[in-house]
Amino acid sequence: MGAFRHHTLVAPDIADRARPGQMVSVAIGGPASALVSRRTLPIAAASPSGTYGGTVDVIVDPGLDAGMAWLGDLRAHDEVAMIGPVGRAYPLPTSGVDVLVVGVGASAAPVGWLAAHLRDRGCRVDLTLAGPDDRHLVGVIEARRIAGSVTVLTGADPELGADLAARVRTQLRTSEIAVVYAAGRARHLAPVVEVARPFGVVVQCCVDEDMPCGTGLCGSCEIPVRADDGMRHTIRGCTEGAVLRGDRVDWAALAEELG
Amino acid sequence: MGAFRHHTLVAPDIADRARPGQMVSVAIGGPASALVSRRTLPIAAASPSGTYGGTVDVIVDPGLDAGMAWLGDLRAHDEVAMIGPVGRAYPLPTSGVDVLVVGVGASAAPVGWLAAHLRDRGCRVDLTLAGPDDRHLVGVIEARRIAGSVTVLTGADPELGADLAARVRTQLRTSEIAVVYAAGRARHLAPVVEVARPFGVVVQCCVDEDMPCGTGLCGSCEIPVRADDGMRHTIRGCTEGAVLRGDRVDWAALAEELG
Amino acid sequence: MSDIGTEVEIGGLRLRVPVIGAAGCVAFGRELVRLGVQDDLGAIVTPSLTARTRAAAHRAVLREAPSGLLAPTVRPSYGVERLRPTALPWDHEGVPPVIVSLAGNTSGDFAEVASGLRRGSLMRRVAGVEIQLASVDAKNSHRPFAYDEFGATKVVARVRESVPSGVPIFAKLCADVTDLVEVARGCVKAGASALVVTSPVRGLLLDPATLRPVIDPASSGLSGPALLPITLRAVWDLRAAVRSGRLPPIPLVAVGGIRSGQDAAAALAAGASAVQLGTALLHDPDAAAAVVAGLVEAVRERGFDHVLDLIGIAHDH
Amino acid sequence: MSDIGTEVEIGGLRLRVPVIGAAGCVAFGRELVRLGVQDDLGAIVTPSLTARTRAAAHRAVLREAPSGLLAPTVRPSYGVERLRPTALPWDHEGVPPVIVSLAGNTSGDFAEVASGLRRGSLMRRVAGVEIQLASVDAKNSHRPFAYDEFGATKVVARVRESVPSGVPIFAKLCADVTDLVEVARGCVKAGASALVVTSPVRGLLLDPATLRPVIDPASSGLSGPALLPITLRAVWDLRAAVRSGRLPPIPLVAVGGIRSGQDAAAALAAGASAVQLGTALLHDPDAAAAVVAGLVEAVRERGFDHVLDLIGIAHDH
Ligand SMILES: Cc1cc2nc3c(=O)[nH]c(=O)nc-3n(C[C@H](O)[C@H](O)[C@H](O)COP(=O)(O)OP(=O)(O)OC[C@H]3O[C@@H](n4cnc5c(N)ncnc54)[C@H](O)[C@@H]3O)c2cc1C
Ligand SMILES: Cc1cc2nc3c(=O)[nH]c(=O)nc-3n(C[C@H](O)[C@H](O)[C@H](O)COP(=O)(O)OP(=O)(O)OC[C@H]3O[C@@H](n4cnc5c(N)ncnc54)[C@H](O)[C@@H]3O)c2cc1C
Ligand SMILES: Cc1cc2nc3c(=O)[nH]c(=O)nc-3n(C[C@H](O)[C@H](O)[C@H](O)COP(=O)(O)O)c2cc1C
Ligand SMILES: Cc1cc2nc3c(=O)[nH]c(=O)nc-3n(C[C@H](O)[C@H](O)[C@H](O)COP(=O)(O)O)c2cc1C
Ligand code: FES
Ligand code: FES
């Protein structure tokens, strides 16, 4: 599957409770590792039962940093310390509506699983997978089995976000989309939320940025949001996100803070 | 093989040149490791040719520290950065004499290989393997195939060194031993050298103490020795040892420095 | 938990176990309860509170350093003006005793936060106060208070005035100063009940792509296992100063790089009465239980029956 | 090696590449030649020489710390009295330019070692002199010279008097002081040609079995990757002081935790003209080649054509 590695991890407690949009927080390296931060990854799938009990799947981009490289190198029977499910899942519609699902790079991990849930609720699912190139896309083939239509979009930053947004705008114009589900880095999500705004369509965003603990302890994953009363404050991306309504997030402030 | 792990490492350049008593210096951990020191290990065997080219064998005591634990966890096809052969080999007799070979714990790694070389030169080899318990002994069964007689000695520190020395004294008294070859920690070697002194028998000691670089750069493996003129000075255990004539080493000073 | 005693007392504060959650690394305790690990900590320290809420000037971004984390020392903070006696951020069922950390940029700021805590009946939920002396002094070229005996002393004295005498004051120092004992002495004289070392040490990393600082160099600090030898040295120096009479007797709390029972035992042996865990809990929220168990084991192995027996033994010959 | 220029000049000393073997981590160069890595270093620094040979009071034992090594700063040393013009310890075919490191416990000691080097024609084989200011001052409670502007200044001045004016003097400082710029300024005024930061920072580890120090706490220092953020911060502070006029212009050399081309590029961007590698070479004697290659790559990626173009760019906005 190209540049990414796909791991299936045995974790019955997590698998039984996990829903699309939730994450696992993983300790990196062994006892002699120089890496201190955990990595918090979106769950790509959860199977409550299996040969070894429940499993969760994650997708790793080993090219990202030393910690991801370590995760990528894990082999069968290796053990990792994992906490989950972490955070808020994608809220699902109660009735079968038309939805648009978009995901970028390895952050798109949950979209296939989400699309299956949406389909099971009777939604018509339109899915777009984006990434810098073909090697950095998650499961296109699996996606075609689930979604009504699958579009692939490749291109380099910073254009990728704009291209994706343009594609979403076209969809919103030409179909009866009730909600957009998105998964990606903040820089890819912000333009999508922006184009959806005039349509009054909510974008449920799984904001995949660094979460060094994934347990709410460190406060380093804070995301600036606007509450209903317009007051700006911050919430913890790991425990109170990662799925947030796009119109609530202060994307400009977030972009500045991410540097 | 009990508490120890035995690794065969593909290293044609080293295998072609290695002789018993020499070592390999191994970098520990991957790029994200918190461990900075190398580990310098006695070579347990070298096979100049094999399926993959030449190989060297090492014996690892994973219980020793985090670095050894990492080495112990290595699996087939893992790669390690290795330098060798490091240091001075055991000098071999030109004629077939009676020799006594003793080794303690994982430091005894080279004794089987050494015994085979001695046997090939026509020596009668008497071998003693010592350790805290049966699980911390190297290859007793292999040893029996090589040596004329094999004795096993187990016991706890600090008595182990004295027990080993007592055994060596008995051997020196009752046989025509021309030279003693020993491999161990300084605390085990010193009593052996002491008992051999009155017999005028040289003990060739492979002094297996910490060697953080194994290349002569750091100076942290220095061993106090007395030169022919009686002057005390120090030599680097890694590049100028690890095999040293026991009567040249200032064991009391070394013991103090090792703490 | 076992036949080994683990209770310690620091400036009047009794800790069931000598392991404390460090400021900024346990939030306000709610997450510890959710994770079910609250009982492994004798107390927690809150993220540093300021007089007024400090919004994220920068995201409190963490960067990985070798065996450490680089974090900004100036972080978004909760303002004491927002505290409501009926809804303290640390008011959750099961949270261990709470030590409130105070930050500011003038001694007046600190006094204001401390006074704010007295309002209403807030103090009843405060087991102690910790002073983040790594905060920078606006009146001294923005150098940390902890770098200067005079600055540190003034802050401690002002906080001491504003806090009821029954509430212990923990002065949190920086190990990366030329003369730690001198600063410590000032804090003790000004009324500190205990000394905590170390705050993160000054550090800098550049973004590999842009070669620009990832965090403001004036206020970014290194935490994590990399600090362990620095922390132990600082504790050793302070304890040695007490033994030699250069510093009045005062309990010490070790923080910086501690993550195992063995590390904690070393900290106690060097002279600490308790340890704080910061990044260890970020790396593994179950770390406190392992630290307590390892500490108990270290006590037992030596034939002692109380963790107090370890304190300072590294100095005995 | 490539179209990218790598030569730098520090206090008159030309280095083919801005990567130097750090004191005590490359012995006298013979082993580098044996390992075939001598050409990847622009110069080497010898283990610190003393006036008289210092036998191992303690074995110069190294202990592993998280991402670091703890080593005694007082080590067995080669006495300048033993130097023979015809058989210098660094007199081996292929050894790169040699900077001789000097240690002592009084400014007189340093002067004596420096004068010793003038004897015979020794100086002809000396490309520069580095002063180990982490050495402790017998006349100042055995605190390192580098902790005290006055002490450091005196040593540099005495060495400057004893060394021919064409030979550059590198003053090696300690980053773990309250005011690094103050000490640096003293050294520059006293005649230092360049500043080197950092010596190992003070650290302590206890033996887990005995809970006693493994190395004398008064003189044990932490080296290795754990230091990287501390080194970069120290270089940044000195460069910033030069830019703001608090420190006269002077070349800087970064040492402490550097092990990759990326680390070296960061050190240059922070303001260093060259880097030294210590534990990186103990961990991997081939490290210098990788550092030079990575540095060249960092220059090329940014469209520059010389490593000089990186120096100090982290300060530009
Ligand atoms: C199929 C579908 C169609 C929808 N169509 C529409 C529509 O047409 N128009 C429309 O407006 N909505 C629409 N929505 C969105 C809907 O109103 C809710 O998002 C959805 O029902 C889930 O509700 P919730 O309360 O769980 O999450 P949300 O309302 O999404 O809750 C917001 C979350 O974001 C975080 N958050 C954001 N701001 C703050 C803040 N200030 N303080 C604290 N936390 C904050 C919190 O974590 C919170 O859980 C639709 C949703 C779905 C699933
Ligand atoms: C079968 C056999 C029988 C022997 N019987 C005897 C015997 O009966 N009596 C006897 O005296 N010897 C005996 N020897 C020892 C013999 O003299 C030599 O050890 C052996 O021949 C090897 O010589 P060498 O020069 O390589 O090593 P050695 O002489 O062992 O060399 C000593 C090594 O130790 C180190 N070293 C020690 N001290 C110093 C120092 N001051 N300065 C620098 N380096 C130092 C060096 O690395 C040097 O290579 C015997 C050896 C063998 C193999
Ligand atoms: C994410 C994070 C946030 C922190 N916030 C604070 C704080 O608000 N106040 C404070 O005094 N120290 C703060 N610190 C410092 C820690 O309390 C502690 O002194 C430091 O991390 C060293 O300990 P450690 O190595 O166990 O993490 C913070 C550290 C981290 C990593
Ligand atoms: C084994 C060892 C020996 C050292 N010997 C000396 C020395 O003799 N003189 C000196 O000034 N510094 C000495 N140092 C310090 C190094 O030169 C260097 O300043 C320090 O190790 C930090 O750099 P690093 O992280 O690259 O190792 C020594 C360091 C080590 C690890
Ligand atoms: S990642 Fe630490 S609080 Fe969210
Ligand atoms: S181990 Fe470094 S010189 Fe021998």
Structural account:
The complex is a heterotetramer, with 2 copies of chain A (259 residues) and 2 copies of chain C (317 residues). With 259 residues, chain A is an alpha/beta fold. Chain A has 7 helices and 13 strands. In chain A, the strands form 3 sheets. In chain A, strands 8-7-6-9-10-13 form a 6-stranded mixed beta sheet, with helices on both faces. Chain A has a 5-stranded antiparallel beta sheet with strand order 1-4-3-2-5, sandwiched between helices. Chain A has a two-stranded antiparallel sheet with strand order 11-12. In chain A, strand 7, helix 4 and strand 8 form a beta-alpha-beta unit. In chain A, helix 5 runs parallel beside helix 6. Chain A is globular. The two termini of chain A are 31 Å apart. With 317 residues, chain C is an alpha/beta fold. Chain C has one domain: TIM Barrel, CATH 3.20.20. Chain C has 8 helices and 16 strands. Chain C has an 8-stranded parallel beta barrel with strand order 3-4-7-8-11-12-15-16, surrounded by 6 helices. In chain C, strands 5-6-14-13 form a 4-stranded antiparallel beta sheet, with no helix packed on it. In chain C, helix 2 runs parallel beside helix 3 and helix 6 packs across helix 8. The longest helix of chain C has 16 residues. The chains are: A alpha/beta (259), C alpha/beta (317). The site of one flavin mononucleotide has 26 residues of chain D, from strand 6 and helix 7. Chains A, B: GO terms for molecular function: 2 iron, 2 sulfur cluster binding. Chains A, B: This is Dihydroorotate dehydrogenase electron transfer subunit iron-sulphur cluster binding domain-containing protein. Chains A, B: It comes from Metallococcus carri. Chains A, B: Pfam families: DHODB_Fe-S_bind (PF10418). Chains C, D: It comes from Metallococcus carri. Chains C, D: Keywords: Flavoprotein, FMN, Oxidoreductase, Pyrimidine biosynthesis.
